[in-house]
Amino acid sequence: MTNRAPLTIDRHAVVERLWLDETSWVDVVRRFVREPATLTASLLDDVVWRPDEQFRYEVTITSPRLIATPRGESLPAAVRQIELHLAATYRRRFSGPALIQYRTGRDSVAFHRDREMRWLDDTLIAIVSLGATRPFAFRPVHSRRDDDTHDHRIDLNSGDLIVMGGRAQQDWLHAVPKCDASEPRVSMTWRWTSRGGRPDSSAPYRGARHFGDSGRVGPQRRN
User: Fold this and answer.
1) What are the chain's domains?
2) Which one of 40, 132, 190, 218 is CB 3.0 to 4.6 Å from 94, fit for a cystine?
3) Cα–Cα distance between 26 and 105 in angstroms, integer?
């Protein structure tokens, strides 16, 4: 008989649903991972992290965070338990996980949509947050850059799970803004799309961009 790994997640943790609008929602599950410090340390120590780099107009830009895409056999048993729970709860087969490490509060990601999924009308994105407490923000896609009137903000603690669903990728942006944290945060992300509706035809975030793309001429400002 094969010994099963101890259960490291709370399958019965309370789920709080936040409706961003009539068709976009976020599920928040506090203390979903039972011993988040152990999982955090394992991922920080054992995963091969690399810079998050994109090629932009003849220059390689390094974003303020690290990324990793480890194979399943190199991940702790807790990760597989999370995957099985997500599949059973949402009745969908997710891809992932993709890992991001925010080394301190200076590391961040600006407001964006996960456009590399292409079909954004009906999606699920599940994120387990580990390590430092960090804010996770949402903003309507048509808001001005400096308009935070309709923003939503959730402080994610170590071991919390959030799931964005419905039209959250079509109609809303999300971000991990800078903060005063001195400790690292690790996020594990799984994604699913229904492949329904009209696909997004814009260039994916990590896709290379060159002068002349979409009629661009001359150097572009770097963020």
Assistant:
1) 25-196 (2.60.120.590)
2) 190
3) 23
